[in-house]
Amino acid sequence: MKLLPQTLPETLPRLQLHALLRRMPKAELHVHIEGSLEPELIFALAQRNGVALAYPDVAALRAAYAFSDLQSFLDIYYAGAGVLLHEADFHDMAWAYLQRAAADGVLRAEIFFDPQTHTARGVPIDTVITGLARACRRAQAELGVSAVLILCFLRHLSEEEALATLEQALPWREHFIGVGLDSSERGRPPGKFARVFARCRALGFHLVAHAGEEGPPAYIHDALDILRVERIDHGVRCLEDPGLVQRLAAARVPLTVCPFSNVKLRVFDTLAQHNLPALLDAGLCATVNSDDPAYFGGYIADNFVQTFDALPQLGPSQAYALARNSLEASFATAAEKAAWVARLDSCFAELN
Ligand code: ADE
Ligand code: ZN
Predict the structure, then answer these.
(1) Atom of ligand 1 nearest to the CA of 185
(2) How would you list the strands of the sheet with 146-154, edge to edge?
(3) How far is the CA of 182 from the centre of ligand 2 (A)?
(4) What is the value of pTM for the model shown?
(5) Contact between residue 278 and residue 314 where contact means Cβ atoms under 8 Å apart
(6) What CATH number has the domain bearing residue 280?
(7) Residue 147, number of CB atoms within 10 A of its CB
(8) Residue 1 lies in a domain
(9) Is the shortest distance between the CB of 189 and ligand 1 below 6 Å?
């Protein structure tokens, strides 16, 4: 851990920077596996499982991916997940994602899944978890990618339903390391899930929650104070509250920022207007992630490349900081993190 970002060149030729952003070792900490379901795989699984789709072909489905906000996306995202029925479907979806992640320099993936989206359709929870877990084991064996699962509760459903989902999942608890909170945020404060998060904390799970994506900074405070989460997913609206920024920076609470998602769901109008540089300047532990890559225009490396292209104040030092933040913000062991940071340092040492 000797390399310091200050010793890095301030700029690099564009193509060299792109190559660096793609190959640098990184962790992806905010990806919904159902959001990695590409239209081609949706059609293939629909055919395999005899499921009827509302769109005639891949092009028509892709053309429907024009969103005005989070809810307009979620409606299409939950419908797309309707083709997932069998263990092999969950495996195939996660395996496709993990191969792409490996190609993007991802050494560690902490993958969200939404069991309630599937159990509500009659798919048993063990089908979901065992299929995803098999892909994670395969990623370690065949790709050298460390992949783990985080079970997310849907915040548009009740806390009772979240508690029931947790009970259903507990026989498979060795297959997931943490829990999260996702789905529509507006008008659904984190406090609604206080009891289920307290129970998960007592059970020893890692805790994360989406907050401050569309919701106000107060939801970030609540996620920390009431849910006691270790990371905030998105969190970009924290800059509206200087006291909150100080708090997040002082405690080094990681923010899993998703630039493409924020533009597609109209949190920011363009990548050039994204507040990622301001988050870093404020001393926050920001990371870059893909959220729902099949829906938002690209995987993690594309998020890095296009965001850096749009924001010229981002260069090699910020690339190093973002990659290092992601490795350190992961829930891996200290030894794993140290080994990954050493690989990151060698990647950047080649620049000098
Ligand atoms: N589920 C999938 N993507 C999401 C997002 N960006 N915010 C909340 N819930 C989600
Ligand atoms: Zn998300």
Answers:
(1) 8
(2) 26-32, 106-113, 146-154, 178-182, 206-211, 231-234, 254-257, 285-288
(3) 6
(4) 0.98
(5) no
(6) 3.20.20.140
(7) 26
(8) no
(9) no
Contact 311, 272 (CB under 8 A): yes
Q: Per the domain annotation, does 5 fall within a domain?
A: no
Contact indicator for 41, 121 with CB cutoff of 8 Å: no
Catalytic residue among 28, 34, 110, 213: 213
68 falls within a domain = yes
Neighbours of 59 (CB within 10 A): 9
Tell me how crowded residue 194 is: count the other CB atoms within 10 A of its CB. Answer: 16
pLDDT in tens, the chain (352 residues): 455 555 899 999 999 999 999 999 999 999 999 999 999 999 999 999 999 999 999 999 999 999 999 999 999 999 999 999 999 999 999 999 999 999 999 999 999 999 999 999 999 999 999 999 999 999 999 999 999 999 999 999 999 999 999 999 999 999 999 999 999 999 999 999 999 999 999 999 999 999 999 999 999 999 999 999 999 999 999 999 999 999 999 999 999 999 999 999 999 999 999 999 999 999 999 999 999 999 999 999 999 999 999 999 999 999 999 999 999 999 999 999 999 999 999 999 988 7
Task: State the residue range of the domain holding 319.
Answer: 14-349
The total number of structural domains that make up the chain = 1
Tokens for 183, please give them: 């789905």
Q: Is the CB of 180 under 6 A from ligand 1?
A: no
In a domain, 3, yes or no: no
